[in-house]
Amino acid sequence: GPCRRVVLQGVLQEGGGHHRLSVLDLGFNAIGDEGCGSLATHCLAGNLNLQTLYLSGNRFGERGALSIAMGIIHGSGLRTLHLTANAIGPVGARAVVGAIAQNEVRVATAQATGQVDATEVGRLEELHLGATEITADGFLSIPAMLLSNSALKVLSVANNNLNDQDVTLLGQALSQNRRVPLESLLLSFNEISCKGVENLMNA
To answer: HEC string of 65-98?
Structure first.
């Protein structure tokens, strides 16, 4: 409603100046694709101060996720991203996860050439994609991203109809990249049997 738009406008104006705001919680606020686009432009892209963005339970989909991905690609300080319970679908998932992978490559290159210190850049450490309708098609981008990731500590893909084959691919990626510091993996409410769990544990 009008009150929500006024509050969001104030947040965007504040974020546009890249002030000290490090956590932005806009969960369950009926934010749609257009609102995500504004957030990505004014609060996320180029803002090294914002470290946590909580957008769970809103009303954006693929286009909103594409906007978030572009904000990440343009450089941000984001370390925690909550997109749970938004229907971003496989295209949105691939865009966000691909942006995270691109950012990792950029940071690694900058560090290798001495252009930036590890403490001065945003590298995503928590990614929450529960109930986002990513399907197996969108999920494929996650194991691919994990093959070269050395920052992610928390990954939630709960309630996405994932199966044994999906978690087997995840396990293979984790076994190939020992540098990923994953501490928490949320897989609840999926279609995973004992076989999938066994494959993941073996990996």
So the answer is: HHHHHHHHHCCCCCCEEECCCCCCHHHHHHHHHH
